[in-house]
Amino acid sequence: MADDVHVTQTKRIATQAGWGMAGQTFSSLTNFALGVAVARSVPPEQFGAFSIALVTYWLALNVSRALATQPLLIRYSGSAAAVWRSALADASGAVSVAGVIGGVACIVVGWIAGNTLGEAFVALGLGLPGLLLRDNLRYAFFAERRARSAIVNDLAFAALLFVAIGLCVLLGNASVFRLVLSLSVAASAAAVFGSVQSGVWPRPLRAATWWRDQADLGSRYIAEALTGLGAGQLATYGIGMVAGLAAVGAIRAAEIVLGPVNIVLQGLGLMSLPEGVRLLRTSPRRLRDACALLSLALCAGALLCGAAALLLPPEIGRALLGANWEPARGVLVPMAFVLAGTGVVSGAQTGLRALAAANRSLQARLVSAVLSPIAAITGAGLGGASLAAWGLAVVGAVSAVMWWWQFAIALREHEPELVAATVYTAAAPQPHGYGRIDG
After folding, report:
1. Which of 5, 105, 209, 267 allows an S-S link to 24, with CB 3.0 to 4.6 Å?
2. pLDDT in tens, 46-56
3. Section 277-286 average pLDDT
4. pLDDT of 382-425, one tens digit each?
Protein backbone atom coordinates (compact mmCIF):
# COMPACT_ATOMS: atom_id res chain seq x y z
CA MET A 1 0.00 0.00 0.00
CA ALA A 2 2.79 2.42 0.91
CA ASP A 3 4.53 1.67 -2.40
CA ASP A 4 1.28 2.36 -4.28
CA VAL A 5 0.94 5.71 -2.55
CA HIS A 6 4.55 6.54 -3.39
CA VAL A 7 4.02 5.63 -7.06
CA THR A 8 0.87 7.75 -7.18
CA GLN A 9 2.69 10.73 -5.68
CA THR A 10 5.57 10.29 -8.13
CA LYS A 11 3.17 10.24 -11.08
CA ARG A 12 1.44 13.34 -9.74
CA ILE A 13 4.74 15.18 -9.41
CA ALA A 14 5.71 14.13 -12.95
CA THR A 15 2.38 15.41 -14.26
CA GLN A 16 2.85 18.73 -12.47
CA ALA A 17 6.38 18.96 -13.83
CA GLY A 18 5.10 18.39 -17.37
CA TRP A 19 2.48 21.08 -17.05
CA GLY A 20 5.05 23.37 -15.46
CA MET A 21 7.42 22.93 -18.36
CA ALA A 22 4.59 23.47 -20.86
CA GLY A 23 3.48 26.65 -19.10
CA GLN A 24 7.00 28.03 -18.77
CA THR A 25 7.82 27.15 -22.38
CA PHE A 26 4.81 29.11 -23.59
CA SER A 27 5.63 32.00 -21.27
CA SER A 28 9.25 32.06 -22.50
CA LEU A 29 8.12 32.00 -26.13
CA THR A 30 5.77 34.91 -25.39
CA ASN A 31 8.63 36.91 -23.88
CA PHE A 32 10.85 36.07 -26.86
CA ALA A 33 8.16 37.09 -29.34
CA LEU A 34 7.54 40.31 -27.42
CA GLY A 35 11.23 41.21 -27.61
CA VAL A 36 11.35 40.49 -31.35
CA ALA A 37 8.15 42.48 -32.00
CA VAL A 38 9.42 45.51 -30.12
CA ALA A 39 12.91 45.30 -31.65
CA ARG A 40 11.40 45.30 -35.15
CA SER A 41 9.03 48.18 -34.38
CA VAL A 42 11.17 50.84 -32.72
CA PRO A 43 14.64 52.39 -33.25
CA PRO A 44 17.63 51.22 -31.15
CA GLU A 45 17.32 54.03 -28.58
CA GLN A 46 13.70 53.17 -27.84
CA PHE A 47 14.49 49.46 -27.72
CA GLY A 48 17.15 50.25 -25.11
CA ALA A 49 14.54 52.11 -23.05
CA PHE A 50 12.19 49.13 -23.39
CA SER A 51 14.95 46.78 -22.22
CA ILE A 52 15.68 48.88 -19.13
CA ALA A 53 11.97 48.98 -18.27
CA LEU A 54 11.82 45.19 -18.64
CA VAL A 55 14.82 44.72 -16.32
CA THR A 56 13.06 46.94 -13.77
CA TYR A 57 9.96 44.77 -14.06
CA TRP A 58 12.00 41.61 -13.42
CA LEU A 59 13.54 43.21 -10.33
CA ALA A 60 10.08 44.08 -9.00
CA LEU A 61 8.91 40.55 -9.81
CA ASN A 62 11.71 38.99 -7.76
CA VAL A 63 10.85 41.19 -4.78
CA SER A 64 7.14 40.37 -5.13
CA ARG A 65 7.80 36.64 -5.24
CA ALA A 66 10.02 36.85 -2.18
CA LEU A 67 7.47 38.83 -0.15
CA ALA A 68 4.31 37.01 -1.15
CA THR A 69 4.39 34.19 -3.71
CA GLN A 70 7.06 31.97 -2.14
CA PRO A 71 5.69 32.24 1.43
CA LEU A 72 2.22 31.46 0.04
CA LEU A 73 3.42 28.30 -1.71
CA ILE A 74 5.61 27.19 1.20
CA ARG A 75 3.15 27.66 4.03
CA TYR A 76 -0.24 27.04 2.44
CA SER A 77 0.15 24.52 -0.40
CA GLY A 78 -2.15 21.59 0.31
CA SER A 79 -4.08 23.46 3.02
CA ALA A 80 -7.83 23.18 3.44
CA ALA A 81 -9.75 25.10 0.78
CA ALA A 82 -10.94 27.85 3.13
CA VAL A 83 -7.45 28.38 4.56
CA TRP A 84 -5.88 28.46 1.08
CA ARG A 85 -8.41 30.96 -0.28
CA SER A 86 -7.90 33.28 2.67
CA ALA A 87 -4.11 33.10 2.33
CA LEU A 88 -4.31 33.66 -1.44
CA ALA A 89 -6.51 36.73 -0.92
CA ASP A 90 -4.01 38.16 1.59
CA ALA A 91 -0.96 37.35 -0.56
CA SER A 92 -2.64 38.84 -3.64
CA GLY A 93 -3.46 41.95 -1.64
CA ALA A 94 0.18 42.24 -0.58
CA VAL A 95 1.31 41.83 -4.20
CA SER A 96 -1.17 44.47 -5.36
CA VAL A 97 -0.01 47.00 -2.77
CA ALA A 98 3.64 46.29 -3.66
CA GLY A 99 2.71 46.84 -7.30
CA VAL A 100 1.05 50.17 -6.53
CA ILE A 101 4.06 51.36 -4.52
CA GLY A 102 6.48 50.26 -7.23
CA GLY A 103 4.24 51.67 -9.94
CA VAL A 104 4.09 55.10 -8.32
CA ALA A 105 7.89 55.05 -7.98
CA CYS A 106 8.23 54.20 -11.70
CA ILE A 107 5.85 57.00 -12.68
CA VAL A 108 7.76 59.53 -10.56
CA VAL A 109 11.09 58.42 -12.05
CA GLY A 110 9.59 58.60 -15.53
CA TRP A 111 8.18 62.07 -14.93
CA ILE A 112 11.56 63.31 -13.71
CA ALA A 113 13.45 61.70 -16.61
CA GLY A 114 11.04 63.12 -19.16
CA ASN A 115 12.55 61.39 -22.23
CA THR A 116 12.04 58.08 -24.02
CA LEU A 117 13.19 56.16 -20.95
CA GLY A 118 10.81 58.22 -18.84
CA GLU A 119 7.89 57.31 -21.10
CA ALA A 120 8.77 53.62 -20.74
CA PHE A 121 8.83 53.92 -16.93
CA VAL A 122 5.49 55.72 -16.83
CA ALA A 123 3.86 53.03 -18.98
CA LEU A 124 5.38 50.30 -16.79
CA GLY A 125 4.24 52.03 -13.61
CA LEU A 126 0.64 52.11 -14.82
CA GLY A 127 0.57 48.34 -15.19
CA LEU A 128 2.96 47.08 -12.51
CA PRO A 129 0.19 46.05 -10.05
CA GLY A 130 -1.44 43.92 -12.76
CA LEU A 131 1.87 42.42 -13.88
CA LEU A 132 2.77 41.32 -10.34
CA LEU A 133 -0.73 40.08 -9.48
CA ARG A 134 -0.95 37.97 -12.64
CA ASP A 135 2.36 36.28 -11.81
CA ASN A 136 1.20 35.52 -8.26
CA LEU A 137 -2.08 34.00 -9.47
CA ARG A 138 -0.25 31.95 -12.10
CA TYR A 139 1.83 30.15 -9.47
CA ALA A 140 -1.20 29.83 -7.21
CA PHE A 141 -2.92 27.82 -9.94
CA PHE A 142 0.02 25.41 -10.07
CA ALA A 143 -0.07 25.10 -6.27
CA GLU A 144 -3.77 24.16 -6.51
CA ARG A 145 -2.93 21.64 -9.25
CA ARG A 146 -4.89 23.74 -11.73
CA ALA A 147 -2.16 23.98 -14.33
CA ARG A 148 -4.68 24.21 -17.16
CA SER A 149 -6.06 27.41 -15.62
CA ALA A 150 -2.56 28.90 -15.57
CA ILE A 151 -2.01 28.06 -19.22
CA VAL A 152 -5.44 29.42 -20.22
CA ASN A 153 -4.51 32.66 -18.47
CA ASP A 154 -1.18 32.70 -20.33
CA LEU A 155 -3.03 32.27 -23.62
CA ALA A 156 -5.43 35.10 -22.80
CA PHE A 157 -2.53 37.37 -21.84
CA ALA A 158 -0.60 36.57 -25.03
CA ALA A 159 -3.65 37.13 -27.22
CA LEU A 160 -4.41 40.51 -25.65
CA LEU A 161 -0.76 41.56 -25.77
CA PHE A 162 -0.16 40.80 -29.42
CA VAL A 163 -3.49 42.20 -30.55
CA ALA A 164 -2.57 45.47 -28.81
CA ILE A 165 0.94 45.47 -30.29
CA GLY A 166 -0.45 44.62 -33.72
CA LEU A 167 -2.84 47.56 -33.56
CA CYS A 168 0.03 49.88 -32.59
CA VAL A 169 2.06 48.71 -35.57
CA LEU A 170 -0.83 48.84 -38.05
CA LEU A 171 -1.82 52.34 -36.94
CA GLY A 172 1.77 53.57 -37.10
CA ASN A 173 1.83 54.34 -33.37
CA ALA A 174 4.49 51.86 -32.27
CA SER A 175 6.32 54.08 -29.80
CA VAL A 176 7.99 52.57 -26.75
CA PHE A 177 5.33 54.17 -24.53
CA ARG A 178 2.47 52.50 -26.39
CA LEU A 179 4.23 49.14 -26.58
CA VAL A 180 5.02 49.02 -22.86
CA LEU A 181 1.50 50.27 -22.16
CA SER A 182 0.19 47.36 -24.28
CA LEU A 183 2.10 45.00 -21.97
CA SER A 184 0.67 46.74 -18.90
CA VAL A 185 -2.92 46.70 -20.13
CA ALA A 186 -2.77 43.06 -21.25
CA ALA A 187 -1.29 41.95 -17.91
CA SER A 188 -3.86 43.93 -15.92
CA ALA A 189 -6.72 42.39 -17.90
CA ALA A 190 -5.21 38.93 -17.45
CA ALA A 191 -4.87 39.57 -13.69
CA VAL A 192 -8.59 40.41 -13.46
CA PHE A 193 -9.36 37.28 -15.49
CA GLY A 194 -7.13 35.27 -13.15
CA SER A 195 -9.05 36.55 -10.12
CA VAL A 196 -12.29 35.47 -11.80
CA GLN A 197 -10.78 32.05 -12.56
CA SER A 198 -9.65 31.56 -8.96
CA GLY A 199 -12.76 33.07 -7.40
CA VAL A 200 -10.47 34.96 -5.00
CA TRP A 201 -10.03 38.74 -4.98
CA PRO A 202 -7.08 40.59 -3.43
CA ARG A 203 -7.39 42.01 0.09
CA PRO A 204 -5.00 44.97 0.03
CA LEU A 205 -5.97 46.05 3.54
CA ARG A 206 -4.34 42.84 4.81
CA ALA A 207 -1.02 43.58 3.10
CA ALA A 208 0.76 44.88 6.22
CA THR A 209 -0.40 41.87 8.25
CA TRP A 210 0.80 39.49 5.55
CA TRP A 211 4.24 41.11 5.35
CA ARG A 212 4.61 41.04 9.12
CA ASP A 213 3.59 37.38 9.39
CA GLN A 214 5.88 36.30 6.54
CA ALA A 215 8.83 38.58 7.38
CA ASP A 216 11.02 35.68 8.54
CA LEU A 217 10.89 34.20 5.02
CA GLY A 218 10.39 37.31 2.91
CA SER A 219 13.38 39.26 4.19
CA ARG A 220 15.77 36.38 3.57
CA TYR A 221 14.35 35.57 0.14
CA ILE A 222 14.69 39.20 -0.94
CA ALA A 223 18.30 39.21 0.23
CA GLU A 224 18.89 35.94 -1.61
CA ALA A 225 17.37 37.18 -4.87
CA LEU A 226 19.19 40.51 -4.85
CA THR A 227 22.48 38.82 -3.92
CA GLY A 228 22.20 36.41 -6.84
CA LEU A 229 21.26 39.14 -9.32
CA GLY A 230 24.04 41.41 -8.09
CA ALA A 231 26.67 38.69 -8.31
CA GLY A 232 25.63 37.86 -11.87
CA GLN A 233 25.86 41.47 -12.96
CA LEU A 234 29.22 41.94 -11.23
CA ALA A 235 30.64 38.86 -12.97
CA THR A 236 29.40 40.09 -16.36
CA TYR A 237 30.80 43.59 -15.91
CA GLY A 238 34.08 42.16 -14.62
CA ILE A 239 34.53 39.86 -17.62
CA GLY A 240 33.85 42.79 -19.94
CA MET A 241 36.39 45.02 -18.19
CA VAL A 242 39.14 42.39 -18.05
CA ALA A 243 38.66 40.43 -21.30
CA GLY A 244 36.57 42.80 -23.41
CA LEU A 245 32.99 42.88 -24.64
CA ALA A 246 33.66 40.05 -27.11
CA ALA A 247 34.18 37.67 -24.18
CA VAL A 248 30.85 38.74 -22.67
CA GLY A 249 29.20 38.27 -26.07
CA ALA A 250 30.60 34.74 -26.43
CA ILE A 251 29.21 33.66 -23.05
CA ARG A 252 25.86 35.32 -23.74
CA ALA A 253 25.64 33.63 -27.15
CA ALA A 254 26.30 30.24 -25.55
CA GLU A 255 23.51 30.93 -23.06
CA ILE A 256 21.14 31.53 -25.98
CA VAL A 257 22.11 28.20 -27.57
CA LEU A 258 21.46 26.44 -24.25
CA GLY A 259 18.15 28.28 -23.82
CA PRO A 260 15.97 25.11 -23.74
CA VAL A 261 17.65 24.06 -20.50
CA ASN A 262 16.86 27.45 -18.97
CA ILE A 263 13.21 26.94 -19.90
CA VAL A 264 13.17 23.64 -18.03
CA LEU A 265 15.00 25.07 -15.00
CA GLN A 266 12.58 27.98 -14.75
CA GLY A 267 9.53 25.80 -15.37
CA LEU A 268 10.40 23.42 -12.56
CA GLY A 269 11.37 26.10 -10.05
CA LEU A 270 8.34 27.39 -8.21
CA MET A 271 6.17 24.80 -9.99
CA SER A 272 7.81 21.97 -8.03
CA LEU A 273 7.60 23.75 -4.68
CA PRO A 274 3.94 22.98 -3.80
CA GLU A 275 4.52 19.26 -4.46
CA GLY A 276 7.64 19.41 -2.30
CA VAL A 277 5.62 20.89 0.55
CA ARG A 278 3.06 18.09 0.22
CA LEU A 279 5.77 15.43 0.18
CA LEU A 280 7.34 16.89 3.33
CA ARG A 281 4.07 16.48 5.18
CA THR A 282 4.07 12.83 4.14
CA SER A 283 7.74 12.00 4.71
CA PRO A 284 10.98 14.03 4.76
CA ARG A 285 12.69 11.04 3.11
CA ARG A 286 10.36 11.25 0.13
CA LEU A 287 11.06 14.95 -0.19
CA ARG A 288 14.80 14.19 -0.22
CA ASP A 289 14.37 11.47 -2.85
CA ALA A 290 12.17 13.66 -5.07
CA CYS A 291 14.65 16.54 -4.86
CA ALA A 292 17.51 14.19 -5.76
CA LEU A 293 15.56 12.92 -8.76
CA LEU A 294 14.82 16.50 -9.84
CA SER A 295 18.51 17.44 -9.60
CA LEU A 296 19.58 14.35 -11.52
CA ALA A 297 17.07 14.97 -14.33
CA LEU A 298 17.98 18.63 -14.72
CA CYS A 299 21.73 17.94 -14.61
CA ALA A 300 21.41 15.24 -17.27
CA GLY A 301 19.23 17.50 -19.42
CA ALA A 302 21.82 20.28 -19.29
CA LEU A 303 24.64 17.98 -20.33
CA LEU A 304 22.59 16.40 -23.13
CA CYS A 305 21.61 19.83 -24.42
CA GLY A 306 25.26 20.88 -24.40
CA ALA A 307 26.26 17.75 -26.33
CA ALA A 308 23.51 18.34 -28.88
CA ALA A 309 24.62 21.96 -29.34
CA LEU A 310 28.20 20.84 -29.98
CA LEU A 311 26.97 18.47 -32.70
CA LEU A 312 25.10 21.20 -34.57
CA PRO A 313 26.37 21.62 -38.15
CA PRO A 314 28.29 24.91 -38.52
CA GLU A 315 25.79 26.24 -41.08
CA ILE A 316 22.93 25.86 -38.61
CA GLY A 317 24.97 27.51 -35.88
CA ARG A 318 25.78 30.45 -38.14
CA ALA A 319 22.13 30.71 -39.18
CA LEU A 320 21.19 31.02 -35.50
CA LEU A 321 23.95 33.33 -34.27
CA GLY A 322 25.79 34.58 -37.34
CA ALA A 323 29.35 35.61 -36.55
CA ASN A 324 28.74 34.88 -32.87
CA TRP A 325 28.52 31.12 -33.47
CA GLU A 326 32.25 30.30 -33.35
CA PRO A 327 32.89 32.27 -30.12
CA ALA A 328 29.81 30.63 -28.56
CA ARG A 329 30.94 27.16 -29.59
CA GLY A 330 34.25 27.77 -27.86
CA VAL A 331 32.54 28.07 -24.46
CA LEU A 332 29.63 25.65 -24.92
CA VAL A 333 31.22 22.86 -22.87
CA PRO A 334 31.91 24.89 -19.71
CA MET A 335 28.56 26.71 -20.00
CA ALA A 336 26.78 23.36 -20.22
CA PHE A 337 28.52 22.41 -16.96
CA VAL A 338 27.40 25.74 -15.47
CA LEU A 339 23.79 24.85 -16.27
CA ALA A 340 24.33 21.30 -15.00
CA GLY A 341 25.43 22.76 -11.67
CA THR A 342 22.34 24.97 -11.64
CA GLY A 343 20.23 21.87 -12.23
CA VAL A 344 21.80 20.09 -9.26
CA VAL A 345 21.19 23.17 -7.13
CA SER A 346 17.51 23.32 -8.19
CA GLY A 347 16.61 20.11 -6.34
CA ALA A 348 18.25 21.24 -3.10
CA GLN A 349 16.73 24.70 -3.47
CA THR A 350 13.26 23.21 -3.83
CA GLY A 351 13.86 21.14 -0.70
CA LEU A 352 15.07 24.11 1.32
CA ARG A 353 12.06 26.12 0.18
CA ALA A 354 9.69 23.31 1.19
CA LEU A 355 11.36 23.19 4.62
CA ALA A 356 11.06 27.00 4.89
CA ALA A 357 14.79 26.99 5.74
CA ALA A 358 15.29 30.50 4.41
CA ASN A 359 18.40 31.15 6.46
CA ARG A 360 20.17 28.08 5.07
CA SER A 361 19.28 28.88 1.46
CA LEU A 362 20.59 32.42 1.98
CA GLN A 363 23.89 31.03 3.33
CA ALA A 364 24.23 28.81 0.26
CA ARG A 365 23.45 31.72 -2.07
CA LEU A 366 26.03 33.94 -0.40
CA VAL A 367 28.79 31.41 -1.07
CA SER A 368 28.09 31.32 -4.82
CA ALA A 369 27.57 35.10 -4.90
CA VAL A 370 31.05 35.68 -3.49
CA LEU A 371 32.80 33.03 -5.58
CA SER A 372 31.15 33.69 -8.98
CA PRO A 373 32.62 37.17 -9.68
CA ILE A 374 36.04 36.13 -8.33
CA ALA A 375 36.21 33.00 -10.50
CA ALA A 376 34.80 34.69 -13.61
CA ILE A 377 37.07 37.73 -13.45
CA THR A 378 40.17 35.69 -12.58
CA GLY A 379 39.45 33.27 -15.42
CA ALA A 380 38.83 36.14 -17.85
CA GLY A 381 42.18 37.67 -16.93
CA LEU A 382 44.07 34.40 -17.38
CA GLY A 383 42.39 33.04 -20.50
CA GLY A 384 39.55 35.18 -21.79
CA ALA A 385 36.00 33.88 -22.27
CA SER A 386 36.94 30.19 -22.10
CA LEU A 387 38.60 30.29 -18.68
CA ALA A 388 35.94 32.68 -17.39
CA ALA A 389 33.28 30.12 -18.33
CA TRP A 390 35.28 27.29 -16.73
CA GLY A 391 35.62 29.42 -13.60
CA LEU A 392 31.84 29.73 -13.46
CA ALA A 393 31.53 25.96 -13.99
CA VAL A 394 33.80 25.27 -11.01
CA VAL A 395 31.75 27.64 -8.87
CA GLY A 396 28.62 25.82 -10.04
CA ALA A 397 30.03 22.53 -8.74
CA VAL A 398 31.04 24.08 -5.41
CA SER A 399 27.60 25.71 -5.12
CA ALA A 400 25.86 22.39 -5.77
CA VAL A 401 27.79 20.78 -2.91
CA MET A 402 27.01 23.74 -0.63
CA TRP A 403 23.28 23.71 -1.42
CA TRP A 404 22.94 19.99 -0.83
CA TRP A 405 24.97 20.21 2.39
CA GLN A 406 22.64 22.92 3.66
CA PHE A 407 19.61 20.84 2.59
CA ALA A 408 20.93 17.80 4.49
CA ILE A 409 21.42 19.90 7.64
CA ALA A 410 17.94 21.41 7.28
CA LEU A 411 16.40 17.93 6.96
CA ARG A 412 18.12 16.82 10.18
CA GLU A 413 16.95 19.97 11.95
CA HIS A 414 13.43 19.39 10.74
CA GLU A 415 13.03 15.94 12.34
CA PRO A 416 12.58 17.12 15.96
CA GLU A 417 10.33 19.94 14.76
CA LEU A 418 8.17 17.40 12.93
CA VAL A 419 7.81 15.28 16.09
CA ALA A 420 6.96 18.33 18.19
CA ALA A 421 4.46 19.57 15.61
CA THR A 422 2.75 16.15 15.55
CA VAL A 423 2.38 16.11 19.35
CA TYR A 424 1.11 19.70 19.36
CA THR A 425 -1.33 19.09 16.53
CA ALA A 426 -2.89 16.19 18.38
CA ALA A 427 -3.90 18.64 21.09
CA ALA A 428 -4.65 21.73 19.01
CA PRO A 429 -4.56 21.53 15.17
CA GLN A 430 -3.00 24.51 13.43
CA PRO A 431 -4.91 25.70 10.35
CA HIS A 432 -1.99 27.64 8.88
CA GLY A 433 0.53 24.90 8.14
CA TYR A 434 3.99 24.96 9.66
CA GLY A 435 3.95 28.51 10.96
CA ARG A 436 7.19 30.42 11.42
CA ILE A 437 10.38 28.52 10.77
CA ASP A 438 13.45 30.69 11.05
CA GLY A 439 15.84 28.02 9.74
Report:
1. 267
2. 777 777 788 78
3. 84
4. 999 899 999 999 999 999 999 999 999 999 888 765 444 433 33
pTM confidence score? 0.77
| Of residues 409, 410, 354, the one with CA closest to residue 70 | 354
* Cα 152 to Cα 138: distance, rounded to the nearest angstrom: 10
pLDDT digits (tens, 9 = 90+) for 232-278: 878 888 888 888 878 887 887 788 778 767 766 766 666 778 888 88
Q: SS3 of 296, please?
A: helix
CA distance 133 to 141: 12
Query: How many helices and strands, by DSSP H and E, does the chain display?
Result: 17, 0
Whether 397 and 255 have beta carbons less than 8 Å apart is answered as: no
Span 197-220, average pLDDT: 91
Reported confidence tier of residue 134, pLDDT bands at 50, 70, 90: very high
Residue type, 12: R
In sequence order, the 6+-apart residues with CB closer than 8 A to the CB of 246 are 327, 385
Compute the mean pLDDT over every residue in the chain, rounded to the nearest whole number. Answer: 83
Helix boundaries (H) for 116-244: 116-143, 147-170, 176-198, 207-213, 215-243
Percent of the chain with pLDDT over 90: 37
Q: How many CB atoms lie within 10 A of CB 172?
A: 7
Q: Are the beta carbons of 353 and 439 closer than 8 angstroms?
A: no
Cβ count within 10 A of residue 435 = 12
Q: Which residues of 312-331 are buried (b: 16+ CB within 10 A; e: fewer)?
A: beeeebeeebeebbebbbbb
Q: Which of 106, 100, 114 is nearest to 52 (CA)?
A: 106
- Dump the DSSP string for 94-105: HHHHHHHHHHHH
End-to-end CA distance of the chain: 34
CA 187 to each of CA 63, 69, 82, 136, 182: distance values in angstroms, whole numbers, following the listed order = 18, 17, 27, 12, 8
Cβ atoms of 91 and 69 closer than 8 Å: yes
SS3 (DSSP) at 381: helix
Instruction: Identify the pLDDT of residue 202.
Output: 95
